Amino acid sequence: MKIGEEAMPSEGIGEQSTSARTVLIVVSDLRAHPETTVGEIAARTGLPQSAVSAAIGRLRSVGAVIAETDPRDRRRTIIREAPEVSERVTRVRDTPIDAAVAAALRTNDPQRVRETVVALEELADRLIPHLRK
């Protein structure tokens, strides 16, 4: 999580009220639970509801998620991933993590960094194949 947070591009997003780590936790939960609410995310993650709301607001502002009134209970708002991949999401997904991995390994050896990135990708595929797109 820390390496992902360090690799996250932040140019042009301005000052944010919530951390990249909080957003990553919320996104991970949302991908595991495709139709959910802010309260449900807060309960599952242990994050304060205000932090989840701020993260959802941040994700909505870049078109990564949509929030719709639940037609069965108009008091609830359902959160889901946006059907279209936003420009911001594409930029985040396309950002290499090599520099963050090199910093974590405390090395400039490109071969060691590459091997580690490959190992991390393989581990992610094995542990959470249904969440990788």
From TrEMBL:
<dbReference type="InterPro" id="IPR000835">
    <property type="entry name" value="HTH_MarR-typ"/>
</dbReference>
<dbReference type="InterPro" id="IPR036388">
    <property type="entry name" value="WH-like_DNA-bd_sf"/>
</dbReference>
<dbReference type="InterPro" id="IPR036390">
    <property type="entry name" value="WH_DNA-bd_sf"/>
</dbReference>
<protein>
    <submittedName>
        <fullName>MarR family transcriptional regulator</fullName>
    </submittedName>
</protein>
<dbReference type="Pfam" id="PF12802">
    <property type="entry name" value="MarR_2"/>
</dbReference>
<feature type="domain" description="HTH marR-type">
    <location>
        <begin position="30"/>
        <end position="76"/>
    </location>
</feature>
